Amino acid sequence: MSTEYERLKQLDHRYIWHPFTQQKHWTECEQPLIVDRAEGFELIDVDGKSYLDGVSSLWCNVHGHTEPELMAALSDQAGKLCHSTLLGLTHRPVIELSEKLISLVPKGLSKIFYADAGTTAVEAGLRIALEWWQKQGGTASKQKKKLLSLGGAYHGDTVGSVTVGFLPAFHGSIEPILVPALRTPPPHMFRFYDGLSEADALTASIEQLDQLLQKEADSIAAFFMEPLVQGAAGIWVQPPEFMKAARELCRKHDVLFLADEVATGFGKTGTLFAVEQGQISPDIMIVGKGLSAGYLPISAAIATQELYDGFLGGVEEGKTFFYGQTFAGNPLAARVASANLELIEKRDVVGGLAARIETMTSALREKIEPLGCVDEVRQCGLMVGIELTKRPGERCPFLPEELAGWRVIYEARKRGVVIRPLGNVIILMPAVTMPLNDIERLVDVTADSLKAVLEN
Ligand SMILES: *Cc1c(COP(=O)(O)O)cnc(C)c1O
Fold it and tell me: Is the CB of 419 inside a 6 Å radius of any atom of ligand 1?
């Protein structure tokens, strides 16, 4: 390691508290990868070594890093306007982005509320849903104060979004201050924990949701779900029939349906948005991560006209939606997001997905599934979760203190690939435009690293 590396590492240790990171482990056990720049699908560290970006920089990157067309849009915009506000003013980049975005999302979604992160857009969505019922007037709609979400859901990290996305491992210590919310098990839980077949798990989870709604719908404002894939849970995949049934049940029981596409949006599941595979249109759809191709923070809660109309009234009526962030819809981010959407169309990114997914599927089948340390491989499009086991042929997860996932990803890093574990699951999430040979290299290195660390 160079002296420059050592200098930066010491400064990091002195000043920075990293998100989702045990700092004791970070400062005492880890050789941090210090990223200096990037090119295409490679991250390059301060000593000039390249690493394949195997998780698309936390599930965001769409066209690779330093994509010339995106850089041109960014630098042009930087010369014009870096920041203004959407509170009481508007600007060209966000207007142009909005027209484009509405043309791409499911029919019925027509009004875009911008935010600056996935979690603040989820928060906007849940506030719109809760406030909409309250603003309807009438005692029945005023009863609708609770939120409903899936077991194992993740929707971001503000207290509001944690309410619908509670994961005991992450949020146990703040449980007493969370807004009460109801949860219903997704098909994955019945399949993985109860051993039901795919078809029976689907039926069981739909039945459970139906029963809960029959009993509780009068008090429920909205149902939240990550369509097709619960990402942060460890890539829990559902058949598209689940969102379809959930959408119908919500309509039948007068519960708003919110689709959180922060992770699944912009091609990751094989279609531009996951909801397309269930042929549904939600009342609110949340987008983030890939909206600006993973370059700048911007997100949105996209709502129906009906929800929007519920907030209309005279200024004295108290119907205004009093919510927003300083940097919501930032011009630089909006401009890059427009360029991203144009590139997605111009390069037919969606049309190029099938070959990439096929390459991923066959590489996983050939290299990862046969390994003794692999319990199961879950895949939806280019979202992959590899569930580890200590004993071949049995379900026996590694304990957190064994750091199995971490040891695997450090080994992969030595071999020039960046990936990240989620507990007992190794996640692969290549950018949706990654070349086929890089997808193969990603799986090869993951397989070699699993073998080197867990099969000796
Ligand atoms: C990442 C993620 C979020 C949170 O987005 P941030 O930009 O990190 O706030 C919300 N929902 C889902 C499904 C996500 O994957």
Answer: no
Q: 291 φ, ψ to 5°?
A: -60, -40
User: What is the Cα–Cα distance from 194 to 224, expressed in whole angstroms?
Assistant: 24
Q: 60 CB less than 6 Å from ligand 1?
A: no
Spatial contact of 254 and 176, defined as CB atoms under 8 Å apart? no
Contact 269, 357 (CB under 8 A): no
- In single-letter form, the type of residue at position 49 comes to K
Q: Find the distance separating the first CA and the last CA of the chain, reported in whole Å.
A: 28
Looking at the CA of residue 299, tell me the nearest atom of ligand 1: 7
Gap between the Cα atoms of 83 and 327, Å rounded: 8
Distance of CA 134 to the CA centre of its chain: 29
Q: What CA–CA distance (Å, rounded) separates 454 from 55?
A: 21
Amino acid at 73: A
Beta carbons of 239 and 163 less than 8 angstroms apart: no
Site of tokens 């397309």:
276
On the CB side of 268, how many CA atoms lie within 13 Å of its CA? 36
Reported pTM: 0.97
Cα of 14 vs centre of ligand 1, distance in Å, is: 28
As given in the structure block, the two tokens for residue 212 are 């809960």
Distance 393 CA to ligand 1 centre (A): 33
Taking the CA atoms of 74, 80, 83 and 85 in sequence, report the sign of the dihedral they define: negative
Q: The domain at 33-62+350-454 falls in which architecture?
A: Alpha-Beta Complex (3.90)
Q: Is the dihedral of CA 408, 410, 411, 416 positive or negative?
A: positive
Domains of the chain: which residue ranges?
A: 33-62+350-454, 72-346
Decide whether any atom of ligand 1 lies within 6 Å of the 287 Cβ: no
- Find out whether the beta carbon of 123 lies less than 6 Å from any atom of ligand 1: no
The residue ranges of the chain whose pLDDT is under 50 are none
Q: How far is it, in rounded angstroms, from Cα 373 to Cα 398?
A: 10
Q: Is the minimum distance from the CB of 263 to ligand 1 under 6 angstroms?
A: yes
What CATH number does domain 72-346 carry, 3.90.1720.10, 3.40.50.300, 3.20.20.10, 3.40.640.10?
3.40.640.10
